Amino acid sequence: MRRPIIDPNKNYTFRDYFEMNVPINELLAYFGYTHQMASCTLARSTTDLTPFAHLKGQLENHLQYAYLTSETARREVLVAPVILSVAIFLKTPLQIEYPLNVTKQLKGKVDYYLQRNGNLLIIEAKHDDMTRGFTQLAVEMIAFDQWLEADDKPLYGIVTIGDAWRFGYLDRVNKQICQDTRLYAIPTEIEELLRILIAIFEN
User: In order of start, what are the domains of the chain with their CATH numbers?
Assistant: First the structure.
């Protein structure tokens, strides 16, 4: 008989799920959710992006003078400037290293998250391995789904290594997580990335 993928008597942190390197569909099934890799439907905002005019050049300069040799470097050089700029634009507090404790199997620190008008976005930054990074992100979205009051609005998430970003969302009604097939390159596609990020909070 196959051993269960999760020991129900053991404590797990979000980081543990990254280290486990298990099939994402099996892991999410344990929590009662399904997974699909697909072209996710992501709205684009039509707002004026003039307040972000400096951002692409700033990121290009960061890449010229900083070596991305660690997860911390990628977060500080490429991820934080983008997320903080969006938070300032939306006038919404940015939570950093946010501690979340839902159950003994759904707990840990979330790198970043933004919440506004019932819309929520979680960002998980990694040095590499976006596949396992998305698995960790998916568990974090499940934790928020169980922590927040019931709502039919999806929860959004991003896994990023700084110069590449991948979206996903959790359909809270159907308990399904969609992992987008597309990657957004930064700083090349910064405008499209920003339009998606802002659109998440416009409805």
Answer: 22-200 (3.90.1570)
